[in-house]
């Protein structure tokens, strides 16, 4: 005798009750212990679920309803506070299991470092994997003040792991000079400031390939996503980000996994960031899966 | 010995003291009891008035000053808490009186359901009435979880009342599949996502007709209007909404009434939403009346 | 393969998975449509559950752990937005079912009107029912601006239903002169301003009787509960409210049901009100059940 | 055809429409330009009026209703931004007029400096005037960083004007060593930390005298009044401040004028400070007038 | 020549420790006492410094690092609260000293009136000075409610001082009719609504001239800068403002001084406005100096 | 020995410029990576310093001025994000240096785990060390979800290190049953709920001993300290905490070091928590040093 969860929002809206029957698995990675500036993204996945109750199940963008895709919201991976080493191992193990079960992973962060073990697991299954990365920041550091496990390093790690020429970053407007130089020297693609137009140029070159898409919510301008750790002006609009998701939907790449990270609800009293994230996830599900 | 109300803002700035001498009547409809998500728009009209003190009386957009229009701020219609049936009756009766007195109604919501009795009253006076509707949401439901009186239904009600082909919606980015289908099947105009460009195409076709314009503040992107019940990313900018108001001002339609609804101040700590609403109302007065 | 819900908090901490095996049922009543001042308590139950993750399971006050009581969190009763009549019927029906199943109801509001149908249902099962009511407000109005179903009326309704001499109000510091007079004329107990001391005097007179306890969070001073619709200074501390709960625990009355209402999270950025409510509920469970 | 101002709150609740017929005049002094720390009290009077809609008109403390006193809310005195010299002159002139008309002034600040011209005007009419001052701060500076007109100086000014032995400060917990020393050397009464108990001792010694009472909201602990410029922990509760107001009500002094200052709404998202201020003003009206 | 740290006085990221060796001096002008609407910009400089820790030192826009420019953060000029006359004198004297020492001044407000004494000092050294002014407001009033020293007057003052034809305003969307008329009648340039495109047209005409650039953060739309005194919708994006700074960087004008004013942190809970301001200052340093 | 100003690094009011000449050293420990609930205390030290500008330098409680004590604010210890192991080593090394230099350490957290390495260093110098601990939480866990380095463990660690009978906890109102049992079994003192009265009883028994005092700001009720990670109602008032500090000041114990931890500014929009912390530190300096 459990009511429909009208307001409590423990699972993403319209989540399917059966893991076995679902093709997509949604999960949270509530970790924020390596961030160098403002923490709080550990509460991102829970708040995104909570506000998803405000979503319509239909997308007028792609003319599809959530009922048409079976996705299972697995909740948050329990991660040990303050221990990035073990957290990363636990995430990778979880993704290994999902992939072994034939599921498409759709993750919610948490800080961006959580994407590193996910992408590493993906690369085991898809040797030809490419990465599409939308972010305000390069995330190409080797280490941050001596720590190799930092929210500033995940793209560097995956680029070194699968080859920099398989990584495509868009919307970048912040980083160290050395990071941009490293990308240039190693054949990695970086589109500065813009997402939609350069993405449209790149997508045909990736046709047929398995692609993992990782979106840091701070690729949006702070006007559109104030609820994140590092707000950096000069970003894109939510309209452009939606259009970019739809451009991928219309392309010939195969999205084999994806995530949306760095929503930190405490910095956004209006909750627009979490609401935006929940809509982006709806479009990712309906557009890509 | 009453001071000018330097800060208390009980009336919209420059409101004329005489109802009789005014051609326009501004009034609040502080109702939010049928909203399905976040309530609070009952406080919209009061806050819009309060912050209107920060407005200049001159519009550099239309080169006109508030002194050139006589409008009377009648305060808020007293509505019974939690009783939508009686609230709707009271609103309709009030508009009937305004129209009998030859006034142009300019309403402030409150939730969008308040527009239904206003539009119904307008249609009695103007049999040839057309509706211009700017909103993130279709508002075309027949009922919401069994309730025919809901903030999701006003456009459906007026469309059925005056004929769907007389209703023009702009900026719509959210709704049920059935709502979009109903509009299509019944000849109602819906412009998805955009406002200004499609509006410019429609306006000439309405030349000479009496038009009621209803604006839900959530047609704006949450970046521009975080203080509303349902924030939905991918919306238009305040610049585009201002331009849309000015496009109507330059057209040959006759605006016989209008409203601006769904400002919910509590969700916007910076008060930008109420400030924006007060400027939009200034432009509606100076552009349309 | 669903994780423990480390952060998503869809159920109150340590809730038992089986309705059948539980003796207590926790449920939300997410209704706020008749409030006369600031709405938002519809989100109270969800937020109380969400923050309950921060609670210890052990109470050093009563030296007991949550594991010692089987309670089932049933979620929120789905209530029709803006329709108090139907909402009240639905709540009463639900409580009837709980009582028929031999459960002890523990409700979370929502506005205070939700307690009326609960208490009415309780009175059917317990003809000798007494009410202990802690609140800043009398809630003894016959109607509010013409509406008999209002958040200002529930105590009047139950007092007329079971007899005013069976109702004991504590902590009252706000009401109309007529309300206080009505209580006096009809033999209803009202302790103004204080809770703990007068409660200790009354409790022995109720020994052995079935008692329903209804707590409006605004009995607390706004310093201790800013997140509520009507903040009214001069209230009691959370320490005194905890001590009052423990005084009941040590008495010889039989608590046959209870609720905690009027938590409105949006007005409390620090979330202390929801956190306090979750601790009060823990103490109500451990002290009374 | 102007509605009752259900939400717009332009006047304090139940304000009488006629200046002539009223014995008390309520007015705002929206000035905050000399504050040394956090500005914003200029918006205090407007917000206090706005939230007064949430008040009951009856006081269960003194068993009286607002209808029993005729008070006129004159709005805010228009004060020139950034010009304390002229502001002070304008305030004094206004109070002169009120006193000439036989009115009792009840002022709302604004920063505490606004009390200086009021008290100066009072002293002209009442040569035997005494001052009761409740505050966290001594406000006894001669000047603040070279400025003799500062929010840190009003009590010094009035003490020098009417004699320090006629000034009684309560609740003081902050000031320079020199300020405390000056008070001691000059026979001025300062009760450190406490209000109610020392006040009860002083009141009989003032029996029959005309007294002006000036209350800085920061005499309350920040828990009870976060919305003020200078929050300073260790203050009294709102319960104690209410009791202090009622102690004065029961004494034999004649309150010939009073004010409540330093409410700065922007620092208090829950609006408890403005709500508390509005209740304090109700009790000042019902207890003293 | 380091000021006492009146408002916390941390330093802007990468500030050089030596005044003597630096070519640029960064300083705060924490004054907000003449603002007519919402105060709080006195805390702007301190918060901009505090959040500058979140900046990268490299600009991918101009491919330069902060280490390449020697700038000294002198802290905040100590200004007397509530005394605009003396504040203005102190600011002018300070700029005189900076210019005598051969430094380029880079100021942070504070309200816009602080730019007047700076520009006056600049004009003494550079008789051929031109002003580029980006703002939502004309700031061309002669006085504001009788006060010639007001945040609404600085551009009028400098225009009268160096000749209106040497002043170029961009992005203006608010002002009195008389202000626009005065500009027109006196040959002063005003670009309404837009910044980037008209700026690109004007810049070549200023080639070789010494120019002071004054930016009011409210030239940005409130979506991009909610933390300011007067939010006025219809503004430009942070992307456009960055592009405008870079257009100046690529032009042949000589920026001999500049400021960024009106950041009021209290109105922006997410701190995006202060973060944006700190990035704009980084680009001003790297692009212009 | 001034650290880089990792988080803005302004200085506490009246800090002495010379490390060598100072007897007390104030330092921040901006670490929050092991907290299990709400992070953000890393920004505590910087905000406490920032708001200390609002403090008077004189304490009317102990009749002393800050000028009478030489203390040096060393800024924040740079700690590696997400690495508690290294952070703890760095803190202990720093305290070793301070003690070798004959300084009294006064630390600001950061999460409570930072106190562990400080107390460990103290115990090396003072073999007879006792600990006075004020907190809402026992902090006596052996580990937290497998992590021995957690904000829930510092008191357990020091108790095991110096013997549980040398540790005195006050104000405790939250913990696991096992933690209370462990304390009881091992002769450690825990005063539940209260601080002042039990402290007064314990202090004479510690006469002449070197004592380290560690205060978790959450010993205060959330009404008095909403800006902390774990708000737990039923706590003491700021008045009682001040009185407790003064009781220690009047006792015969020797305070050889102390800290105040867990201020997390983001959860307290009014900034009362940081203001309270800054006043507590003033009283600790003036009362104990």
TrEMBL record, chains A, B, C, D, E, F:
**Enzyme Commission number(s) from the entry:** 3.5.3.11
Keywords assigned: Hydrolase, Metal-binding
Instruction: Tell me yes or no: is Isomerase among this UniProt entry's keywords.
Output: no
- Pfam families, A to Z: Arginase
The protein's matches in InterPro entries, at most eight in alphabetical order, are given as: Agmatinase-rel, Ureohydrolase, Ureohydrolase_dom_sf, Ureohydrolase_Mn_BS
Asked if the Swiss-Prot or TrEMBL record annotates the protein with the keyword Hydrolase, the reply is yes
Q: Which GO terms describe its molecular function?
A: agmatinase activity
Q: Give the family from UniProt.
A: Belongs to the arginase family. Agmatinase subfamily.
Under which name does UniProt file this protein?
A: Agmatinase
The organism of origin for this protein = Bacillus spongiae
This protein's gene is called speB
């Amino acid at each position: 005798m459990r009511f429909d969860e009208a307001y409590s929002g423990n699972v993403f809206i319209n989540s399917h009750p059966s893991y076995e029957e679902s093709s997509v698995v949604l999960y949270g990675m509530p970790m924020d212990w390596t961030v160098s500036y403002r923490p709080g993204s550990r509460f991102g996945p829970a708040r995104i679920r909570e506000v998803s109750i405000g979503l319509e199940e239909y997308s007028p963008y792609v003319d599809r309803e959530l009922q048409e895709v079976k996705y299972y919201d697995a909740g948050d991976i329990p991660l040990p506070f303050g221990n990035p080493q073990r957290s990363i191992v636990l995430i990778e193990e979880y993704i290994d299991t999902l992939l072994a079960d034939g599921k498409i992973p759709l993750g919610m962060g948490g800080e961006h470092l959580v994407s590193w073990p996910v992408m590493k697991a993906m690369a085991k299954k898809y040797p030809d994997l490419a990465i599409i990365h939308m972010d305000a920041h390069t995330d190409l550091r080797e280490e941050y003040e001596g720590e190799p496990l930092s929210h500033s390093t995940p793209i560097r790690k995956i680029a070194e792991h699968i080859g920099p020429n398989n990584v495509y970053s868009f919307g970048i407007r912040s980083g160290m000079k050395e990071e941009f130089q490293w990308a240039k020297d190693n054949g990695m693609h970086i589109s500065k400031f813009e997402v939609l137009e350069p993405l449209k140029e790149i997508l045909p070159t990736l046709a047929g390939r398995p692609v993992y898409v990782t979106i840091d919510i701070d690729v949006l301008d702070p006007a559109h996503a104030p609820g994140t750790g590092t707000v950096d002006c000069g970003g894109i609009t939510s309209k452009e980000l939606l259009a970019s998701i739809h451009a991928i939907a219309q392309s010939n790449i195969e999205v084999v996994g994806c995530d949306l990270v760095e929503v930190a609800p405490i910095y956004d009293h209006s909750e627009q960031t979490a609401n935006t994230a929940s809509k982006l996830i709806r479009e990712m599900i309906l557009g890509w899966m």
